[in-house]
Design goal:
By secondary structure, the chain is mostly helical. The chain has helices at about 5-10, 30-105, 115-195, 200-210, 235-245, and strands spanning about 10-15, 20, 220, 250, 260.
């Protein structure tokens, strides 16, 4: 028998009740094949839609990590700048106090009374205390500035390392995100083709179950596992026979998923 005729007989084989079943080389009812193919496309579309959510989150997380380091570095640099300005101001104050102190000490030669002497000594002591306190504060700020400089250098090195390591990953993630739109459009076109091959009733049931079951609408049933692949409820013998005939869309009475009989080798 020619191969074309043999294939035709395989595809249009009547069952015991005289009904015509559209079967392919895989032994599956054609609608069953198309339902499984459509579901595979929908699974890919679901993954792509999820990628449109988690990829931006991954990109944002990487950028946030860099942004935190940059903000920390900027804050420390600004603090260092403020301390540097404060040190310069304090140095000017010390210079001023020392000038005033020198002038007061010169006036000691012109003192004529004890009262004038006591008042001048008091002013000199005030200036000495001001010089001492200002110098002490200046030294403290200098020490803090040196620590800040070390922290800034360490942060710069860390930021450079993170940017270097993240650059390739960020570029890859952005390319992948840009490609999702193209992949989604291609899969939507493929879905239209797959859906058009289905009987309208079968497609309507599939769409309803898919929405209610989070995308997993079609499950396989085999001789070795005569149960719903979704809720795992064992199917009665009569239901198994109906599935084997493959002349109608049969759903699980427990969870509502579409049941597909898959012959085993």
């Amino acid at each position: 028998m020619p191969e074309e005729v043999a294939q035709k007989e395989l595809s249009c084989r009547p069952d015991a009740a005289g009904r015509i079943e559209r079967r392919g080389a895989s032994g599956l009812n054609k609608d069953a094949e198309h339902l499984l193919e459509l579901q595979e496309v929908d699974f890919v579309l679901l993954e792509l839609e999820q990628s449109k959510t988690y990829l931006p989150e991954m990109i944002a997380q990487k950028e946030k990590e860099i942004g935190i380091l940059e903000s920390d570095l900027k804050a420390r640099q600004e603090t260092l700048t403020a301390k540097t300005l404060e040190i310069k101001r304090l140095e000017l104050d010390v210079s001023k106090f020392q000038t005033e102190l020198a002038n007061l000490q010169k006036r000691m030669r012109d003192i004529k009374t004890n009262k004038e002497y006591d008042a001048l000594v008091k002013e000199i002591d005030v200036r000495k205390a001001a010089v001492s306190q200002t110098e002490e504060k200046t030294l403290q700020l200098m020490s803090e500035s040196e620590d800040l400089k070390k922290e800034i250098e360490a942060l710069k090195e860390k930021l450079e390392t993170v940017k270097k390591h993240s650059a390739a990953e960020l570029e890859s993630l952005r390319r992948e995100l840009e490609a999702i739109g193209v992949k989604v459009r291609a899969k939507l076109d493929e879905r239209k083709v797959k859906a058009a091959r289905l009987d309208r009733q079968a497609l309507t049931i599939y769409e309803r179950v898919r929405k209610g079951r989070g995308g997993h609408a079609v499950v396989r049933v085999t001789q070795s596992r005569p149960a719903c692949g979704g809720c795992f409820k064992t199917l009665p013998p009569q239901r198994i026979q109906e599935l084997k005939r493959g002349d109608q869309v049969i759903t699980c009475q427990n969870c509502g998923r579409i049941l597909i009989w898959v012959p085993e080798d």
